[in-house]
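Narrative of activities, Objective 1.

The group set out to show that a structural description can be obtained from nothing but a protein's sequence at a throughput compatible with the screening campaign. Below is one input-output pair from the validation batch, recorded exactly as produced.
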Amino acid sequence: MVQSATNERKPLIRASWQDKLMIGTGYIFLGAFVLAIIVPMLYIIVASFIDPVTLQNSGVTFDFSKWTLTAYKRVLSNNAIWTGFRNAIVYSVVFTFLSVAITMMAAYPMSDPQFKGRKFFNIIFVITMFFGGGLIPTYLLVSNLGLLNSMWAVILPGAFSVWNMIIARTFYRSVPKELHEAAFVDGANDVTYFFRILLPVCTPLITVLALWQFVGMWNSYFDAMIYLNDTAKQPLQLVLRSILIQNQPESGMISDMQSTAARAQLAELLKYATIIVSSLPLLVMYPFFQKYFDSGIMAGSIKG
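Output recorded for this entry:
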């Protein structure tokens, strides 16, 4: 038996030089891509701790006597940062919940072949992926609805994602039909089946969609810049934008600096510290949700 099993083994296929060249080239590009991400990130982290005078004159140094926590103390003691941080969390959480809920419920009838209006709504949804009303009509619509200068002006316009709906619809189709039939035999209706049976099966998909939407809203600033006038309602991204792009740190961060050069040096240091502080929630979230990525995305990409 051992000899027959050995004879049935297929010989290992050695990679040709073309395959090795292709794999090696892929590794080179992948390594360059990783370095392009890691090097700037490490530079920002290290630069946020260095004394502004040393950073401007000598650049990055690993002489810890030249390091300081001044930037973080000023950033974390500023009320505008905490207000923006709170608003960003509230907007992102509410937006994620509404977006995932609307997407999952909209995808359910679209996955049912017996739904008579399925093709019509599919066409309507796909059209919105390629054509939009534009900024001015959208602004007028939000204004006429009385949503200006409110959190709903930032949350509602983008709460429904057609792309996410298509992914959820494909995931639903991969769920065995026998599960649906068994639920209806036991007396369940569509509402009971959707909330008590289908959604628990879709946990990986829900997690991935929630992370996508949370990250998208967390990084978004344009809608808030257009629709929000009250600084107390602006998210952290607008505060970060004023520091990074407009080079205008909050006055409380540098008000005690006497010379113009010192203020400019500290303003440059505050940029790095603000980037780190604003990125912390996403850096903390990813390790906990990473295990759902493969199963969530791949399960929705193949129709079973």
